[in-house]
Design brief:
Layout lengths: L20 E6 L1 H11 L4 E4 L8 H13 L8 E4 L2 E4 L11 H18 L5 E6 L3 E5 L17 E5 L2 H18 L4 E6 L9 H21 L3 E3 L2 H8 L15 H15 L2 H17 L8 H21 L6 H13 L1
Parallel strand pairs: 1-2, 1-5, 5-8, 8-9
Antiparallel strand pairs: 3-4, 6-7
Length: 329
């Protein structure tokens, strides 16, 4: 007997490939997946605005990414000794306004320049609840610990989400014909919304994605939410906060994604590069400098052989880093 509910996504080998340029947008779960892909040498741009949880904030930032219009000093506000943007995660905040603005606009420009070559956009929605700034009516991406009275909290409607996202779908269809949208719903439970409220939120997101899939063939869905909720329904697959997935759960979901979307060649590349990635992260525990030099040289040789086997994958940064580390010994 099989004492578990196996979630088996449709197999589409080659949907994700090392030759593609990937853009990942959304919640912290998409950052988990993005790190997994980066560690296996996929060409990934992860959250140019930082972690985003609701569909409306992602739309706002998508529109800015397409236009490339820079942010200005008026888009920032000072609180707690830091300059913040309501469109950005706190990782962009800084005690110096000019530094914060420069960081925001450098990241925006890089994302804007890369967008035309994008082949896959992976979007993870975390919550359908939004916080609207009372002073302007703007939905914020991050409240930055401002008083609750500053905002009005509301649950987005399915129709409103679809109406905001259909123009993105149509833009991709017309301007990025090589590109497809892969939606996921974050399996992270937002229990501050209450157990029932969290289910309403996730259901709203799932219904909106289903509508978008029916509107366009470029929209696909990966069931990360269902895998954790139904296949891995055990608290050993959660982190200590009992809401975020554990490392083993993320690894399992990544394995399902690999089996569903990667070609045999991409799987082999991912396996090979992850071994190199762990070697690049190694630092000596003793003063055996000669042994470490030999280890670095062997790692450099592996990277060069990897590049010879897969010349379309850029490893120039790793080669230069290894050469520098060898010289410094």
């Amino acid at each position: 007997m099989n004492f578990r509910t196996v979630i088996d996504p449709p197999r589409h080998l080659g949907y994700l490939d090392h030759r593609q340029h990937l853009l990942l947008l959304g919640s912290c779960f998409v950052e988990n997946m993005g790190a997994w892909l980066q560690q296996r040498k996929f060409d990934v741009d992860i959250n140019p605005f930082g972690t985003l949880y609701n569909p409306e904030s992602i739309v706002r930032n998508w529109e800015r990414m397409v236009s490339g219009a820079p942010f200005t000093a008026d888009d920032l506000f000072l609180s707690g000794g830091l300059w913040h943007s309501y469109d950005h995660h706190s990782r962009f905040s800084s005690p110096d306004r000019d530094s914060a603005l420069a960081h925001i606009n450098r990241r925006l420009a890089a994302a804007h320049d890369r967008l035309p070559a994008t082949d896959r956009i992976v979007v993870t929605w975390g919550s359908a609840y939004v916080y609207r700034l009372n002073a302007t009516g703007q939905v914020v991406a991050n409240c930055h610990k401002q008083p609750a009275s500053t905002f009005t909290r509301e649950l987005l409607a399915v129709d409103d989400i679809v109406a905001r996202w259909l123009p993105i779908v149509r833009y991709i269809e017309s301007s990025l014909p090589q590109c497809r949208l892969l939606f996921t719903v974050s399996p992270i439970r937002h229990l501050r919304d209450g157990a029932h409220g969290n289910q309403l939120s996730k259901a709203t997101l799932l219904l909106a994605i289903d509508r978008l899939q029916r509107e366009s063939r470029i929209c696909d869905y990966f069931p990360s939410y269902e895998i954790l909720m139904d296949d891995l329904r055990d608290y050993r697959f959660y982190d200590t906060d009992m809401t975020h997935p554990s490392a083993s759960a993320i690894a399992y979901i990544s394995e399902v994604l690999t089996e569903s979307y990667l070609t045999p060649e991409s799987r082999e590349i991912a396996t090979q590069w992850y071994k190199i990635y762990t070697a690049l992260a190694h630092r000596p525990l003793t003063g055996d400098t000669e042994g470490y030099r030999t280890f670095l040289q062997k790692t450099l040789d592996r990277v060069i052989r990897f590049h010879q086997a897969y010349p379309y994958i850029d490893v120039s940064h790793e080669i230069e880093e290894l050469k520098t580390r060898i010289k410094q010994i």
